[in-house]
Amino acid sequence: MKINTKVEVDAGTRTFASGLLPDLIAALRRSRKGDLIAVVGSDPGIGPALEAWCRFTRNSLVDTTVEGGRTRWVVRHGEAPENGGDDRPVGSRLWLYTNFDCNLSCDYCCVRSSPKAPRRALGIERVRRIATEAAELCVSEIFVTGGEPFMLPDIDEIIAACAAAAPTTVLTNGMLFAGRGLATLRSLPRERVTFQISLDSPTPERHDDHRGKGTWARAWKGIEQARAEGFRVRLAATVSTEAEAEEFEGFLDAHHISAENRVIRRIALRGSAAQGIALARADLVPEVTITAEGVFWHPVGAEDEDLLVSRDIFPLAESFAAVRRAFDREFEHQRALARIFNCA
After folding, report:
1. CATH number of 93-317
2. pLDDT, tens digit, for every residue of 198-215?
3. Domain 7-76 has CATH 3.30.110.40
4. What's the pLDDT tens digit per position in 22-50?
5. Distance of alpha carbon 185 from its chain centroid, rounded?
């Protein structure tokens, strides 16, 4: 999907050595923090220089595509919002995408889940091995997500295996807690499992606009159902603006939802989203994420090639080491740039 940008710079055959830099500076002056700028050129050598320029100027290179012999680089003006997990050790949290099919088609889903999406299930056998090895690696939290995990007939076994290894949070839309889903819910250990249920606004309109008519009411019913069964429930809102975030904070305050049981995040310009915050790998503190396709840098881009670390999941220790090595290389590059620009 082509990312829409505020400014387009046609570099032609120019590079940083032959006149591109003034156009980039002019593009920054015509844009605001958070806006996206596209640079289109026929010389692929622009890429490494553009990445270095972004690091020096505290902007971010967020996307690269090639079409018809020309490359299109997308730069975000300014850095991403602060990441709250900067002090969390790499490998302390482990994310599992159990599947990618979903009962909803949310218009901003970062991994393009929907009822039509292929399941791409991780599978109980791999999950059991992952859980066993994660316990040996002293993982402190496991997050089970999708897709909609409760679409899976063996989700009870998957969650139980994860919870035996570490405290486990299940991300869900909360709409399948009936029949088999309710039986699954009741079978899970309350002291080891938390549910994170999506609710995007204080009233149905905005939530339903993103997720489908009637979904707010069904999500709220799921929240109440999980609480009634004795589970800790965390409410998670995905919002477009700071105003929406503040509005939802007020709603949570009114319902006496504690700070540790609320998550408010901005829409990421990944997957199905047509707008949102553009995020590059350099913007994200890594959180080891495993899907049926391999190991990824972060759950926000768990099907995107730029966040793929390795196709090999096992041994899990090597997957964790691969992410740490990539993280070290990222910071070594930043340190090298700093040394290059040391003026005294």
Report:
1. 3.20.20.70
2. 999 999 999 999 999 999
3. yes
4. 999 999 999 888 788 999 999 999 999 99
5. 25
